Amino acid sequence: MKLRAHVVAMTGLIVGLCSFAPLIGQDSGNEEVRFGYVDVVIDAGAPLAAYQFEIVDPTGSAVLVGVEGGELPSFAAAPYYDPAALQQSRVIVGDFQLDEELQSGSQRVARLHYMVSGASVPDYSATLMVAAGLDGSAVPAQVRWTWGESK
Amino acid sequence: MNWWNKVVPASCLIVGVALLLWGCQSQVPANRQLGNDAAPSQFEAERSSELSEYLSRGAVSPSSKYKTRSFDGRRSRPPGRTREPREKAQKPDNGAFDELWIIPRDSQGNPMGPAGLPGSGALVTRDPDTQHNIVIPLEHTDVRAQIDGCVASVVVNQQFHNPYDTKIEAKYVFPLPQDAAVTDFEMTVGERRIRGVIREREQAEQIYQAARRQGRVASLLTQERPNVFTQSVANIEPGKSVAVAITYFNTLRFVDGAYEFVFPMIVGPRFNPPGSQNGIGAVAVGQVGASRQPTEVSYLRPAQRSGHDIAITVELDAGLPLGTISSPTHAIEDERASQTSALITLSANDQIPNRDFVLRYVVAGENTNTSLVTHEDDRGGFFQLLLVPPANLSRTERRPCEFIFVLDCSGSMQGRPLRLAKSAAQRALRHLQAQDTFQIVRFSQDVSQLGPAPIRATPENVRRGVEYLESLKGSRGTHMIQGIKAALDFPHDESRLRIVSFLTDGYIGNEVEIFQAIDERLGSARLFGLGVGSSVNRYLLDGISSLGRGAVTYVGLDESAVEAADSFYRAVSHAALTDVAVDWNGLEVSEVTPRRSPDLLVGRPVVISGRYTGEPPRFVRVSGWAEGVQVQWDVPLGEPSRNPAIASVWARQQIRYLSDLNPTVVQRDANRAEIRQTVLDLALQHNLMSAYTAFVAVDTTRITEGDHGVTVPVPVPTPAGVRYETTVGD
């Protein structure tokens, strides 16, 4: 009698727990990816007419899902990325502008949209490859990035 | 202890059952988060009272003109119950709107289609002011083309808008040219523009679905055929708009002295043979999933209209003085900017997207010459050679031929398309020479023919053929494979060149199967196509003629069948130049397409593209055989023109010959995986759409409110001249 009672009890518990199994899987599935964006800012010592930067996520947890332009009219159009570099998990983005009024100082030139796995903010490494003025000469400049995420 | 022995198991059972019930209920929202829009109760509601009860639970904004509700039912379906798809119409509760809820299910009564595919339910709203108008989430398509020489660069802007008061996902199946090299994709949300990223298709679909589940505005562009694409836009909020811009390049056709720019506007209703699992379904508005095909086009009923319109602008820079510019399909306005350039716009009175747009122009003065276009970048050099047949080819005599005319007599051809096809075939029959033989094959649901073997083209037999053609009628399905087998399996007279001409609109969903059948049976035959109708499946027709080393002619509904037949006959009435070879005069060329040497036909130049290293030469030497006589001539190239689109056009051509037109290798060979990888690498490196790649764009800056809403397919009209009743039906 005791054995039968325990068997029945265990069956009840197993049935109850099994009903949770799909939920557990789904919940973890929902949390497996997040979306966020990287604002790339260039601090230029002279009016900026062209730029190119590379941004890399060393952990490989971030997937580029969109490329958006900057905050000012000069670089408002969505810039282009290098598709060949993308296949090597490198994101190289560049743009140039000759018509609009060019700006010096700090400006957001691009916003990169990412899908990331895991809970932490990706630790990107950004390298400024080109910063040039209207005449094609190099402009003293630095690049930095900030992470944004809506929840 | 006895009471304990009874209480513990009883309690456990109660807890277990309670947990089980709780778990079952909790799974519904969880499933929805995973993208299963197909809510069980929608598929399972079996009585109108149940449906009304269900509908009454939805949130409705009384202020809105069009009222909608999203699916969130809970009931479970008794096992084993079967049901056909059906519709239920709600009475207007205040006279302001009609609602039509669509309840698709398969023969077992199960929800149709996994996440992201048709079957997730649909919502259709009628405008109360004009009862036949259907409000759809695609407002406008704007096409801007720039033609430079023989290469077109085209931007297609699709403007989606949510007219409902609930969030939606819009799905639009639309055509592009079969050789379009789609290289760019941009999504506009409000004032913000986000460039899409090329990804392996499965990964792009996963990204899109994850973004959609999380309520983010996202868009996905996938290729279903080289000329059929699906645009999905997720989480369009009520009253909001999202636009997507697609950029592609393609090479213009050059036929009988005229360049031809074509922009397809509509995917015609395809027939899928029984058992097809990768077809393109055709369903009536609201019957989502009823075709059971992974890609599905919804068609408006004959009396229905949507507000979707189209604008086309073409900036033409021919590089040489322009002759006549005309459109056999649409009213256009032609503004000459200079002797060599013009701005062409689609007339404001002709903006219903129910037939392909065709623009033809001729370059005045001299004959078109062979020309070379190149491009160099850090990937190397790319070229495109437009090879024009030698002038004296039109003076050569052809050997006797065995003509097989294969007429598509299916339901989609009923009416004017079949009349045009019959007229063209009759005209071609009258051109035949006494030493030729011919046969006529018709196919629809079955196949039959004038006789068991090719017959001599005597006046009496030609008259019999003309009468036989006259007797043909269009109805039922399109079992083209049977027509191909019948045409190519005739005993062949080796003394004659077999020329098989397919007269069809190409509305089938099993193109690869057709290509395979041709590849198996082709032999020495040459295949020609006569595409008939307002929106022909050019992927199929071009593919048939390319595999069969022939050519294709298209005739629109308002064009002359006689001229089309004459164009076809001009191409076959002289000897073709076969085994064409190009000596590149020291230039190192590689990865040249087409792989198989094309035949040169009178009036039909061919385009050869490839990669090169070195300095482009001043001339190339071309050789070939015309009826047993070797022909060789030098072609001056002049200064090559430059066009960066050539690299993308080359990559697209490579993909075409690796996969689209290579059914034998791709479908059956052990190297299939290797070829897939080659195509994938090529597409990713060149940012190109393909069967294995897709563009995805996600706005990660905000999450829209609520769940991902209802999936709304964008319905389209049946192409002009195509009968709804014999193709889509209800």
Would you write up a description of this structure?
Chain A is an alpha+beta fold and 151 residues long. Chain A is built from 3 helices and 8 strands, in the order H-H-E-E-E-E-H-E-E-E-E. Chain B is of the alpha+beta class and 730 residues long. In chain B, the strands form 8 sheets. An 8-stranded mixed sheet of chain B has the order 9-8-13-6-5-19-22-21. In chain B, strands 26, 27, 28, 29, 30, 31 and 32 form a 7-stranded mixed sheet that branches. Strand 3 of chain A pairs antiparallel with strand 9 of chain B.
The largest β sheet of chain B comes out as: 8 strands, mixed
Looking at how many chains there are and whether they match, the oligomeric state comes to heterodimer
* Total E-strand runs of chain A: 8
- Major beta sheet, strand line-up of chain A: 3-6-1-8
Structural class of chain B: alpha+beta
Query: What's the alpha carbon Rg of chain A, rounded to whole Å?
Result: 24 Å
What is the overall number of helices of chain A?
3
Average pLDDT metric of chain A: 83
First-last Cα distance of chain B: 69 Å
**Class from secondary-structure proportions of chain A:** alpha+beta
Count the DSSP helices of chain B: 14
Q: What shape does the CA trace of chain B take?
A: globular
Distance between the termini of chain A: 54 Å
Radius of gyration of chain B: 28 Å
Low-confidence stretches of chain A: 15-30
Number of strands of chain B: 40
* Pair of chains with the largest interface and how many residues each contributes: A-B, 52 and 56 residues
Helix share, percent of chain A = 10-25%
Low-confidence stretches of chain B: 1-10, 12-122
Topology of chain A as a string of helices (H) and strands (E)? HHEEEEHEEEE
